[in-house]
Amino acid sequence: MEDRQFGRIRFLCGENGGKYPFNHSLYIQGDNLRVVVDPACSHAKLTRLKEEGVDQVWLSHWHEDHIHYMNEFEGCTVWISKRDFPPLTDLNIFMDWYGLLAPDQRAYWKKIMLEMFDFRPRQTACFIEDDQLIDLGGLRVQTIATPGHTPGHLSFYFPGEDLLFLGDYDLTAFGPWYGDVASSIEDTIRSIHRLKNIPASRWIVAHNTGLYEENPGPLWDQYESVIYERESKLLAALEKPKTLEEICACWIIYGKPRQPKEFFEFNEKVMIGKHLEYALGQGRIVCENGRYRRT
Ligand SMILES: [Zn+2]
User: Fold this and answer.
1) Distance 235 CA to ligand 1 centre (A)
2) Is 3.30.300.30 the CATH classification of the domain at 4-216?
3) Does the pLDDT at position 260 exceed 90?
4) Quick one: which of 242, 102, 87, 91 has its CA closest to 151?
5) Long-range contact list for 13-20, CB < 8 A, 24+ apart?
6) Among the four residues 33, 125, 168, 277, which has the most C-beta atoms within 10 Å?
């Protein structure tokens, strides 16, 4: 995979195929402003980019694998949805938004965020409005509110190049992520539908494959259907009542136990929690004496 230039938009492919903790970034050059979107592709690449000139940093959302190198762009204003800004103001809020409660987990994440992701609390940012048409001079960008993954997740459509940046609706085989405190399965489904219906001819996702120059076609449905597969596995497991711990031991999200154990156990639990919340809301399951069962 290599970097590609589409008019005034550059696809900056991430290290290690854009797999976490890297992503694929964008560099967009308007006559008036030059912007880097989600600066986490590669430290070396982004350092070189500074020499070309960067005026603003835009973030599709608040996750660490999208903000990784933003501190390299000193003096640039950071733009993000107002809804996703609180975690960037304070490391404790950041961890709260991930639902990290146990002191040992918080200590582990604090260390990672400070040492690996160079987390520095920010007091100010500029806010990108939902569904706003921004003119950068010779280049227009349509912002698209795509909540679900995070409440303020934004995607970007460039009408001039017919290019759609999907952010973390990344069409991977793993399926959508909605494991934060403020993530929502319902909103994720709505956002996938919204993105799928935008008539683009190039699509960029923040991880893995990165660039699609033909419509991802069946990948849209496969990606969405992962949600329903997880749900049907959950309902099958709840034929007999189970506690949250017993459900997590079924490894519905990851398929099997994975290492590091603490990390994957936590993620399994938060994603299952979202499915339980969703199924309870739909009246498909009930919770009695700490055990969930199908209705
Ligand atoms: Zn994310």
Assistant:
1) 27
2) no
3) no
4) 87
5) 13/41, 13/210, 13/211, 14/40, 14/41, 14/42, 14/207, 14/210, 15/41, 15/42, 17/208, 17/210, 18/206, 18/207, 18/208, 18/210, 19/207, 19/208, 20/65, 20/207
6) 168
Burial of 161 (0-12, 13-18, 19+ CB in 10 A): middle
pLDDT tens per residue, range 199-226: 999 999 999 999 999 999 999 999 999 9
Q: For residue 149, how far is its CA from the centre of ligand 1 (angstroms)?
A: 7
* CA–CA distance, 25 with 38 (Å, rounded to integer): 5
Centre of ligand 1 to C-alpha 191, Å, is 14
Measure 33 CA to ligand 1 centroid, in angstroms.
26
Domain boundaries, the chain: 4-216, 233-290
User: Which residues, by Cβ under 5 Å, contact ligand 1, an ion?
Assistant: 63, 168
The pLDDT-based confidence of 263 (bands split at 50, 70, 90) is: confident
